[in-house]
Amino acid sequence: MRFRKDAWEGNRRRFIKMAEAEDSPGEQESASSKPLFAGLSDVSISQDIPIEGEITIPSKARAQHHDSSTLNESIRRTIMRDLKAVGRKFMHVLYPRKSNALLRDWDLWGPLILCVTLALMLQKGSIDRENDGGGPEFAEVFVIIWFGAVTITLNSKLLGGNISFFQSLCVLGYCILPLNIAMLICRLLLLAGQGPINFMIRLFVVLVMFAWSVIASTAFLADSQPPNRKALAVYPVFLFYFVISWMILTFTP
Question: What is the pTM of this model?
Fold first, then answer.
């Protein structure tokens, strides 16, 4: 209160002096030579007003800052956090709906795991070590998946899509999950032997999982394309998953 009173008193004195200078033209020149804030020189800060303190971060903000920092966390915690993130994306693919989860928090760990798993399951049981018969099969599956995903991504960008390169790879890679499930079921069915009924069951499983992969991928990628070019963007996706489905259906141990 004392500070406000002194400041008000100083401003009052300054305005009085300016008014007197306007009334007397002879004194106007001398008044104009005075500093503009000369009246504030009499202002003093009372000792009762504290001017010291501490700059502290609230406990809640400190906790959020600590949680968002990953520099000091353990390797085990980092791995578990990444595995949980991959698991959540798997759930988004199993229950496809329009969401930006795969686009916002994209990663390539899930697609890499699914690609390697599918390539391993498509290998034949007996491997000739002299000519390394199983090696080309693994490389073939690996190259087809990643080359196809890159081609679809470039096609999407050329059509004017507003999705980034790695976001598209993430979505296409994660949507192979239904086909991995189809491959696992087909391998289990092939343990019972081959036959017309066995083939019909495998055909039904592969068709269902193929449709699942296409629907899941288009649910994430459709909104990123111009309205008049969605069909041109979905057609390569259809071919991509069709080729993988054909490899699964024609697999023989």
Answer: 0.64
